[in-house]
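Z., the sequence and structure:
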Amino acid sequence: MSKRSNQKRMSNGARTLKFLRKQAKLSFRGAAAMSGLGEGVINHLEHGRIDIHPHHLEKLLKAYGATQQTYEMFACGNSPLPKDVRFECLEIIRVMSLDQLRTAYPVLASLASHK
């Protein structure tokens, strides 16, 4: 593991981990309990003080209920991180045509039933 740095290197990967933790509604303590990593490690990962290694990522993604694909989509910088996912989704839905909504409805309904 890389040594801890006093300098923050806020990478897209670090921002993505923070976003995914918040989307999972987990505190540092909750994320640590779910992942088996220490609170300090998670904090340092999110603030770019230590490098994100595959073993960190595997444990955190499992704890957050996220996929490697989702992480990579945001971490590579091709998709911006949403500020408020619920609001942004509702805005997307608001401008969709009735035909588009009919197509999206089964997917949204199936996702809502998996809570």
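The radius of gyration is 16 Å. The chain has two domains: 1-80, 82-115.

Let me know what you think.
H.
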